[in-house]
């Protein structure tokens, strides 16, 4: 099932929770709606489910206008953030409740129940009440309940946010596996960028009611279109600068600690335009020798502020000459004798430097 | 000894003292219940088991052998059942409206819905009779319009039963309404949304999801309504329906030549009540579904404008108008001048209100009632909080029994407790003949204790014990914690319970009539009673005073409702 | 918080310390009696004995509760109840209290002993042992709603017999004699006046016409005024007060001619009265011409009541001779021919059993009784029907015999159960069920 939002707006009084949303969720995709809380992602999901009515615009399922179809008739399965398990029903009752309404032949009914219980490894807990289950088990019940009816679209609203870290990893695999096996178009709302990168086929990033970018996780990470996304997805060094000009495919940006060159594509900025550059900490190459090569592009003369050694990697907190902080992340670090206060020259390759429009506010919007 | 251990030692000492004081208060509370509930009631109830100084169970045998008593028991059970059923049907839509919609004026209307709880005694009867007498206002009007040719016996014959039920419903529905509203509001909206996504129709959602989850809260309210209707004396007396258990008891117990079978009947009522209460606890205590983390609540309450809310206004105002009819009739009576056999009075006057302020008695009554009800409410706050704490945190063995014990006053005919006090405490320093204030305050407090205990319990059950444990980890004593952590957390419940205790204490009849013997100690209700009996204009002055009392209490209830919102509903939970 | 409590307590307890004599009166009397008598008594006391007296007036809301209270007090301490005077509530109560020796005998001083004669219109004004004295008298009659009777096309009642006529079916409201001293006295008097069989017949037929037995003696008045019932048997002063308020054209009151019934309302000194001397002075005062005039003079007359006419009859002959031509009504009980001689001893002896009997076969089974009566009326009032309907289950002698065993509550309730069962099946049979 392909889901399409066309100019969808949702207002609560004067407050626009979702502003003019245009988005296509491809059939069979595991599509993430990612953003900080209050960005409108859950509202979007609830409009998709039919639990919330769009103020204007259309929602289409396979081209069919579903905007005014009640939730009950949309053929969706939903997992709520709090699971919304009915506490007065056993696991089995919870799961079969929706299925019973489908009036399936008895054989089919049993088959589906067995299938879904097996799928979610809940057979042993089938006769328990939700109150007697652990968080992970509850989550699986919620998932099983939504899947049992074989929905056209599966909607997951922050399904892992109530679980501990280890369980979260486990459930990520679980959900990915289920998605692969069933192929159900799945919309997954989260504020956890790691979940979206690791699981999603597509990720839509939202902020303050706006959809900013929709892309594959890989492209999103490498080619964020805004400074906000660059900061939100993974870690980055974000520095304000002024565009100076382009020569041989290399764009020159003047920053507080010198000019930086970038070979990344660029929107048509005028010379003198205020913009921002972003490069990932892992793109920063730290010189451990103390004798950097003479000719280097984008040299960064920095003072080491703080070093965090993690074994497989080492994080560097560094300060530039004009007191801007930079981060570097070195994988497989050599045995070295650098310490806090040392001055080193690092550099970043022009292809790793992204040029982005300057954000009015660089905070994530939370 | 190091400084550290020294401070530990002094901490231990202060903790010990605090615990001593704390447990001392608990013991004092229990003693209070013993001396002012168990002993006085037993002193009276013993009469059900003795004939000429010999133990006998004959009264029970005779009671069940008498057709009249068994009919009365059955009638009362039917009244209780019918009242509960009709109240449910009436309040369910009201509670759903309250839980689902937000509309202009909701606060005031919700408050108005609660006002029927307060009806001053005695004067209600005059108003009702004025309107529903054989040739009363309603029949006169209907005949004038030519709708009927013969008067309808509204309060006569077989209509009596339904007249009682309707009046009970109009009086008690606020309790059910509060309970249901609270129960519905406590349900996570995602429970229903989930069902919506599965394609479940609204009415099935209600049947399969909402109702089962609201049921424990509903039953808690239903049991109070049931017990109340079962044991209510005032309404059947007002209508003149004497074939009910409480009226039979009242007849036999207040007969100059009292009949011990009446006490046997009281014993049965107490047993039935405690049984129902315990049964309800047993049935529902294990089934209180703690809600897991709550989901998004944005769609729980639907905001609608004035125009869309018109049907809602219509329903709410219709209920309020019907329920406030008796109150309205009292107001008309108090303002009427020489009203005789006309639909409405030909002339109106405020002279009865002026008379109130001319004689001393009404002002004494208002002043005394405020004092007694105020003091009894303070006492209830302390007793209720401690009992609830002891019961909810299971600090004493048989805490369930204690919980049932404090429910007994709900079932106890007022007169039994009051005479129990007279018999037990005459010629002691508490002799009501000398100064009834201590016993009156205690009687008021004991009789309203169930509401406070229920209210405080509801608050405590929602307050996780871990908050108290956190305090304990800092070395605070249990009762320091109670004072500094627990009580502040349940303040809303306590205020709500306190307002109820206060309102019902202001309306108390039995204790007031029997214990306040000298007019300088008359509370409002006894002042109303004294005026009511006065030949000539007494009933009009009594009505005027009743209206003033109503005004004071309506203000209390409205205030409480506006301040506390849905927390009011937790008050009447019995489980 | 503590300050508030203290303030509240201080606010409530504002007892005024009075140096002087003290008297404690328990009385179910209305407030109007208290308001007229007590201040006058205090004045009189100060003038006569040169000292102040403080009167504590206590009431628990009605005769039966007041009696219960006194009994409870004596149960705790047989020597004294801590109360001096019991005033008002009907003779039956005083006969009972006297029978249980809870009242103290007292002989009136001169000239009171002659001013208060042995009886008025056949009604004794004190008992043989002089434990109680009538302090006032009231008469009974039929109170009716003229407008309502006209609407229903019924003639105004004139005799007790009228009330038993089937045309008054569903038109009457009466008080429950087990709860209303007034109703109890009326029943007793009708029985003694007409004899057991005839009296019982009348009472049974009136019960057939009766709409409802109310709890309080004031309820029937309200039923008549509000348009529920056309007529009731009530005490005179209630009716007089209502007629004064709402007009003679709307309401009527008649004392059936030749069937005058008077009810003395006694005052008595309780056994072990803590203030015996003051109590005697109070009784003397209440019976004195000065105080008795308060009962019979109109409002505002010299020596009369200040707030409202009390509308009762005095028991002091001098009070009448001193007020000729000034009284609210011309009625003088001492000039009435005795309609009957009330046997109060007998009345007191049978009171308990009789009330339980009436309760069992008239009141608690009233629904069945009414159906039976309707059926009888429909069948054309056959004499044998009526005879069966109104035949008492016991003779007067049997009833009196039962009263000796009535202290045994098990026996009593067995008997009550039998009466209920028998009368129910009788009424059902008559109703054709």
Please give a handful of descriptors for the protein shown.
heterotrimer, B: 575 residues, mainly alpha, MetI-like fold, two-stranded antiparallel sheet, two-stranded parallel sheet, 2% strand, globular, disordered C terminus, C: 433 residues, D-Maltodextrin-Binding Protein, domain 2, eight-stranded mixed beta sheet, two-stranded antiparallel ribbon
Task: Provide a short characterization of the protein structure.
The complex is a heterotrimer of chains A (366), B (575) and C (433). Chain A is of the alpha+beta class and 366 residues long.
Question: Would you kindly provide a written description of the structure presented here, covering whatever features stand out?
Answer:
The complex is a heterotrimer of chains A (about 375), B (about 575) and C (about 425). Chain A has helices spanning about 40-50, 90-100, 105-120, 135-150, 165-180, 195-200, 215-220, 225-230, and strands at about 5-10, 15-25, 30-35, 55-60, 65, 75-80, 155, 185-190, 200-205, 210-215, 235-245, 250-255, 260, 275-280, 285, 300-310, 315-320, 325-330, 345-350, 355. Chain A is an alpha+beta fold and about 375 residues long. Chain A has a six-stranded mixed beta sheet, with helices on both faces. In chain A, strands 13-12-11-14-20 form a five-stranded antiparallel beta sheet. Chain A has a five-stranded antiparallel beta sheet with strand order 15-19-16-17-18, with no helix packed on it. In chain A, helix 2 (about 90-100) packs parallel to helix 4 and helix 3 (about 105-120) packs antiparallel against helix 4 (about 135-150). The longest helix of chain A has 18 residues, at about 165-180. The two termini of chain A are about 35 Å apart. The model of chain A is unreliable at about 360-365 (pLDDT under 50). In chain B, strand 1 and strand 2 form a beta hairpin. Chain B has two domains: about 10-50 and about 365-575, MetI-like fold, CATH 1.10.3720.10; about 60-325, Orthogonal Bundle (MetI-like fold). Chain B starts with a helix and ends in an 11-residue tail after the last helix. Chain B contains 25 helices and six strands. Chain C is globular, with a radius of gyration of 23 Å. Chain C folds into two domains: about 1-135 and about 265-335, Periplasmic binding protein-like II (D-Maltodextrin-Binding Protein, domain 2, 3-Layer(aba) Sandwich), CATH 3.40.190.10; about 155-230 and about 345-430, D-Maltodextrin-Binding Protein, domain 2. With about 425 residues, chain C is an alpha/beta fold. Residues about 5-20 of chain C have low confidence and may be disordered. Chains in contact: A-B, B-C. The interface between B and C is large, with 71 and 89 residues.
């Amino acid at each position: 099932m392909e889901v399409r939002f066309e100019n969808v707006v949702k207002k609560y009084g004067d407050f626009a929770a979702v502003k003019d949303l245009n988005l296509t969720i491809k059939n069979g995709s595991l599509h993430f709606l990612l953003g900080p809380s209050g960005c409108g992602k859950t509202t979007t999901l609830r409009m998709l489910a039919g639990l919330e009515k769009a103020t204007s615009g259309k929602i289409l399922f396979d081209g069919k206008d579903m905007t005014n179809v009640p939730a009950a008739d949309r053929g969706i399965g939903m997992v709520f953030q709090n699971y919304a398990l009915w506490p007065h029903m056993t696991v089995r009752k919870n799961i079969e409740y929706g299925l019973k309404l489908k009036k399936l032949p008895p054989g089919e009914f049993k088959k589906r129940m067995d299938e879904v219980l097996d799928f979610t490894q809940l057979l042993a807990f089938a006769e328990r009440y939700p109150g007697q289950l652990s968080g992970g088990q509850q989550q699986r019940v919620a998932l099983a309940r939504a899947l049992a009816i074989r929905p056209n679209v599966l909607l997951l609203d922050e399904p892992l946010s109530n679980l501990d870290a280890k369980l979260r990893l486990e459930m990520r695999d679980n959900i990915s596996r289920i998605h692969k096996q069933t192929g159900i178009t799945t919309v997954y709302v989260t504020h956890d960028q790691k979940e979206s990168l690791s699981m999603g086929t597509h990720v839509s990033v939202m902020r303050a009611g706006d959809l900013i970018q929709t892309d594959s996780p890989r492209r999103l990470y490498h080619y964020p279109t805004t400074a906000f996304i660059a900061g939100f997805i993974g870690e980055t060094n974000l520095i304000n600068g002024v565009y100076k000009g382009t020569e041989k495919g290399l764009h020159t940006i003047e920053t507080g600690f010198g000019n930086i060159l970038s070979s990344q594509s660029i929107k048509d900025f005028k010379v003198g335009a205020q913009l921002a550059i972003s490069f990932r900490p892992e793109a920063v190459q730290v010189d451990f020798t103390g004798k950097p090569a003479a000719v280097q592009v984008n040299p960064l003369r920095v003072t080491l502020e703080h070093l965090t050694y993690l074994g497989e990697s080492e994080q560097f907190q560094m300060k530039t000459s004009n007191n801007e902080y930079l981060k570097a992340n070195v994988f497989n670090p050599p045995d070295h004798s650098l310490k806090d206060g040392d001055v080193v020259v690092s550099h970043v390759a022009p292809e790793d430097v992204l040029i982005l429009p300057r954000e009015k506010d660089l905070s994530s919007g939370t | 000894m190091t400084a550290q251990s020294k401070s530990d030692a002094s901490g231990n000492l202060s903790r010990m003292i605090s615990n001593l004081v704390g447990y001392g208060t608990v013991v004092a509370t229990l003693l209070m219940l013993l001396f002012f509930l168990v002993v006085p009631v037993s002193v009276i109830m013993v009469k059900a088991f003795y004939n000429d100084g010999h133990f006998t169970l004959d009264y029970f045998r005779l009671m069940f052998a008498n057709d009249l008593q068994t009919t009365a028991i059955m009638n009362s059970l039917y009244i209780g059942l019918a009242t509960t059923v009709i109240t449910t049907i009436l309040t369910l839509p009201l509670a759903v409206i309250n839980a689902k919609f937000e509309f202009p004026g909701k606060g005031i209307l919700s408050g108005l819905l609660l006002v029927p709880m307060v009806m001053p005694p005695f004067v209600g009867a005059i108003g009702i009779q004025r309107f529903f007498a054989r040739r009363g206002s309603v029949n006169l009007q209907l005949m004038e319009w030519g709708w009927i040719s013969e008067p309808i016996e509204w309060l006569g014959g077989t209509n009596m039963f339904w007249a009682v039920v309707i009046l009970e419903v109009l009086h008690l529905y606020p309790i059910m309404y509060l309970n249901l509203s609270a129960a519905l509001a406590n349900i996570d909206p995602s429970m229903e949304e989930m069902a919506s996504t599965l394609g479940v129709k609204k009415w099935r959602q209600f049947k399969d999801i909402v109702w089962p989850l609201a049921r424990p809260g509903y039953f808690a309210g239903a049991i109070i309504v049931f017990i109340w209707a079962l044991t209510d004396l005032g309404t059947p007396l007002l209508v003149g329906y004497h074939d009910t258990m409480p009226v039979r008891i009242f007849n036999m117990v207040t007969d100059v030549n009292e009949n011990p079978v009446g006490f046997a009947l009281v014993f049965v009522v107490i047993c039935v009540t405690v049984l129902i209460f315990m049964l309800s606890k047993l049935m529902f205590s294990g089934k209180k579904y703690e809600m897991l983390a709550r989901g998004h609540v944005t769609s729980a309450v639907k905001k609608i404008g004035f125009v869309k809310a018109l049907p809602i206004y219509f329903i709410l105002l219709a209920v309020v108008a019907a329920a406030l009819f008796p109150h309205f009739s009292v107001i008309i009576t108090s303002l009427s001048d020489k009203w005789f056999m006309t639909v409405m009075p030909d002339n109106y006057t405020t002279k009865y209100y002026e008379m109130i302020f001319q004689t001393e008695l009404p002002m004494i009554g208002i002043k005394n009632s405020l004092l007694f009800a105020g003091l009894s409410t303070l006492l209830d706050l302390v007793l209720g909080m401690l009992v609830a704490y002891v019961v909810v945190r299971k600090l004493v063995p048989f805490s369930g029994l204690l919980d049932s014990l404090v429910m007994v006053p709900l079932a106890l005919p007022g007169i039994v407790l009051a005479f129990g006090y007279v018999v037990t405490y005459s010629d002691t320093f508490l002799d009501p003949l000398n100064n009834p204030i201590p016993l009156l305050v205690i009687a008021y407090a004991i009789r309203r204790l169930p509401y406070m205990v229920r209210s405080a319990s509801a608050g405590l059950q929602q307050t996780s014990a871990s908050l108290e444990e956190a305090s304990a980890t800092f070395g605070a004593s249990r009762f320091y914690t109670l004072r500094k952590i627990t009580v502040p957390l349940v303040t809303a419940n306590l205020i709500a319970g306190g307002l109820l205790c206060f309102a019902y204490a202001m309306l108390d009849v039995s204790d007031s009539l029997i214990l306040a013997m000298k007019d300088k100690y008359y509370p409002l209700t006894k002042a109303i009673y004294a005026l009511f009996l006065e030949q000539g204009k007494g009933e009009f002055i009594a009505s005027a005073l009743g209206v003033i009392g109503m005004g004071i209490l309506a203000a209390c209830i409205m205030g409480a409702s506006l301040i506390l919102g849905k927390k009011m509903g937790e008050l009447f939970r019995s489980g | 918080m503590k300050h508030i409590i203290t303030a509240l307590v201080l606010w409530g307890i504002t007892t005024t310390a009075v140096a002087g004599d003290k008297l404690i009166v328990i009385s179910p009397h209305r407030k109007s009696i208290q308001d007229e008598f007590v201040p006058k008594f205090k004045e009189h006391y100060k003038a006569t004995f040169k000292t102040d007296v403080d009167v504590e007036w206590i009431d628990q809301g009605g005769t039966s509760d007041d009696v219960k209270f006194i009994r409870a007090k004596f149960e705790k301490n047989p020597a004294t109840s801590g109360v001096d005077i019991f005033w008002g509530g009907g003779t039956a109560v005083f006969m009972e209290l006297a029978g249980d020796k809870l009242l103290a005998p007292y002989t009136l001083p001169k000239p009171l002993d002659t001013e208060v004669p042995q009886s008025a219109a056949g009604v004794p004004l004190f008992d043989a042992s002089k434990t109680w004295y009538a302090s006032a008298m009231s008469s009974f009659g039929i109170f009716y709603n003229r407008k309502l009777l006209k609407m229903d096309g019924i003639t105004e009642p004139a005799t007790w017999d009228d009330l038993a006529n089937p045309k008054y079916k569903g038109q009457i409201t009466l008080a429950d004699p087990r709860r209303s001293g007034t109703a109890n006295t009326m029943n007793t008097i009708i029985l003694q006046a007409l004899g057991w069989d005839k009296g019982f017949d009348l009472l049974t037929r009136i019960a057939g016409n009766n709409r409802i037995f109310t709890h309080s003696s004031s309820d029937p008045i309200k039923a008549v005024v509000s348009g529920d019932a056309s007529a009731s048997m009530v005490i005179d002063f209630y009716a007089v007060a209502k007629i004064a308020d709402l007009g003679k054209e709307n309401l009527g009151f008649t004392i059936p001619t030749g069937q005058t019934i008077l009810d003395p309302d006694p005052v008595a000194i309780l056994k072990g009265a803590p203030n015996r001397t003051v109590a005697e002075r109070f009784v003397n005062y209440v019976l004195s011409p000065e105080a008795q005039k308060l009962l019979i003079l109109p409002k505002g007359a010299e020596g009369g009541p200040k707030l409202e006419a009390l509308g009762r009859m005095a028991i002091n002959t001098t009070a009448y001779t001193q007020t000729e031509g000034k009284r609210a009504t011309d009625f003088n009980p001492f000039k009435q021919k005795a309609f009957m001689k009330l046997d109060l001893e007998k009345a007191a002896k049978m009171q308990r059993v009789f009330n339980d009997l009436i309760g069992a076969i008239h009141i608690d089974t009233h629904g069945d009784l009414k159906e039976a009566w309707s059926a009888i009326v429909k069948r054309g009032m056959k004499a044998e029907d009526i005879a069966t309907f109104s035949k008492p289950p016991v003779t007067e002698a049997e009833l009196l015999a039962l009263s000796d065993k009535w202290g045994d509550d098990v026996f009593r309730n067995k008997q009550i159960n039998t009466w209920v069962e028998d009368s129910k099946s009788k009424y059902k049979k008559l109703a054709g069920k």
